[in-house]
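Handout for the seminar on molecular recognition.
Each group receives one record of this type.
Step one: identify the two inputs.
Step two: read the structure output and locate the region that could contact guanosine-5'-monophosphate.
Step three: write two sentences on what you found, then compare them with the reference statements printed after the record.
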Amino acid sequence: MALDDCIFCKIAAGQIPSRKVYEDDTVLAFEDVNPQAKVHVLVVPKTHYTDILDISRRGIDDLGAMMRGVGEVVRAKGLEKNGFRLVNNCGSDGCQSVKHVHIHVLGGEQLSEKMS
Ligand code: 5GP
Ligand code: ZN
């Protein structure tokens, strides 16, 4: 189900434009509007879940579909050879700014060793 005031629900429904990288029935992947690396793609489920805890409790199949989407993004962006980083920010300590679960796929260059 989509939330009226959720920006990623609107992007997933095509109501707000995005630069699509991959799409299937369950998942959309699109370029981050403010990229933090040469490749920075967001993978979101089309169904609204607040965060990684919510989807792990109520939507384990959709979480699996997100990981399938990650694989599709990695192949589409040619990241298999040199690798990449997945990030999920959760809650206030994790600095999650959009309350619709998403996985960041970062790569295309050497990333920082620092993760925090
Ligand atoms: P968070 O901080 O919640 O982990 O990540 C949210 C991400 O969504 C940020 O990297 C931000 O740049 C991205 N973002 C926020 N609004 C939009 C938008 O309207 N379109 C796109 N493509 N990315 C967005
Ligand atoms: Zn949403």
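Reference statements: Residues 94 and 100 are 14 Å apart (CA to CA). Residues 60-76 form the longest helix (17 residues).
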